Every structure is written in C-alpha cells, then in structure tokens.
Amino acid sequence: MLSGGEADHPLLEAALQCLDLDSSALDRLAEAASTPLGAVASGRLGEQVSDTSQLAQLDDLTGLANRRHWLQTVRGDLAERGTGAVLVVSVGGLADVTRTHGYGAANLVLTEVARVVSRHGLAGRIGGVVLGVWIDGSADEAMAAGALIEAEVAAAERDGTPPVELHLGVASAPADGSDLALLLEAADEASTRQRDAARGDAPRRDDVSMDHRRAA
After folding, report:
1. Cβ contacts of 212 within 8 Å, gap of 6 or more
2. What is the DSSP letter of 91?
3. Dihedral through CA 70, CA 76, CA 77, CA 80, nearest 10?
C-alpha cells in the first residue's frame, strides 16, 4: 500500500480483526500519514525552546529577571526614553538569619523581599543580595516606591526572625547620567551612605559587596 500497489483486502480485513479495529482506523492512519513528518513534534519543540529561553532570563532563586536580562532590558528602555530611575535595594541582615535559622531561611527571606520588590517596577537580581528596580518615572517616584517596599517588607516579617535591613539608593536619568553603569554607581553610593548612616559605624566584614558595580 505504501508503495502505491493494490491492497490485499482479505489480508487487511484479517489484520483489522486481529487488532480488534474497524475500517475507520484506516482513515485515521491515512490522515496521520498525510501530516508532514515532525510537524507536531516541531510545534512542541518550539514551545520547549520558548520556555527554556524564558527560564534563561530568570534568576533561579528569586524568580526575578537575572542580571544579564535586567541590564539588557533597562539599557534598551533607557536608550529609547532617555528618562527613568534606578532603585537599588540591598538586603542586609541575612547573615544573622543564616546563623539563627539556617541558609534555607535566609534564601526564603531574600525571595520574599524579591516578591515585594517585583510589584514596584521592572525588578532583577543584580548581585548576591542586591536587587535592582527600573522605574518609568522620576527620582521622587522611585523614592516613594522604596518607602512602600520598606513598609511591605516590615509588615511581612515573621516572629522570631531577625529583622531585615533594607538599604536603598536612587539615581535617575538624565539628572545622574544617561548611562546605566553611571546610574547604578550613583544608586549604589546612595545605598551605601544610607547603610553607614543607619549603623553609625564602619561596615561589617560579612557585608556583601555591591558586585553590580562590575561593567554593566
């Protein structure tokens, strides 16, 4: 049959009876045979590739945009609009959470902070304990978002868990520069000043450096 020859009908009927099938199975077989090879599989493969591509843009722990994707997206928006604000959120106190409750608890706290931050702009994890938020607005709007983040994180803190310290820094374009690297540096410096002012002493050794200062 596949070569175009005449079907052996008695043999075909006997085969269908053995398989407990009726003649309609042949119609379904013919329909399937007319479908281009790999059409269904390629559709599924396309979906899998798309899913994989999206996952590659996310941070494994927090679910936010990863550093590479966040920087790429923010750069594009900054180049197109020329305005906007960067809010840097440095999460402190996680070393104390790890000492008293374990590493998993510290990761959970960071993830919870990330969930709050994600509601206030385009958020990404740009360093170990550093989250970045791109806000389509002014520096004042970014500072207002930062105040809301602080309040929401404080409200979500659990009894018995050491308090989390949020150190915030804001920089806006074009006031603080038109290059994302300059904006991140300015926001980082503002965050560091806030941290130092809150502590009133020298930075502790267990502070995680702002590794988003690497070439953006």
Report:
1. 67, 88, 126, 127, 130, 132, 184, 188
2. E
3. 170
- One-letter identity of residue 24: S
**Which tens digit of pLDDT belongs to each residue from 15-24?**
556 555 566 6
Q: Which residues of 43-64 are buried (b: 16+ CB within 10 A; e: fewer)?
A: eeeeeeeeeeeeeeeebeebeb
CA-closest candidate to residue 7, choices 26, 32, 20, 21 = 26
Question: What phi and psi, each to the nearest 5 degrees, are found at residue 117?
Answer: -60, -35
Higher pLDDT, 24 or 177: 177
Task: Name residues whose C-beta falls within 8 Å of residue 40's C-beta, 6 or more positions apart in sequence.
Answer: none
Q: Which two tokens stand for residue 88?
A: 């840097």
* Residue 147 or 38, more confident: 147
Query: How far is it, in rounded angstroms, from Cα 186 to Cα 181?
Result: 9
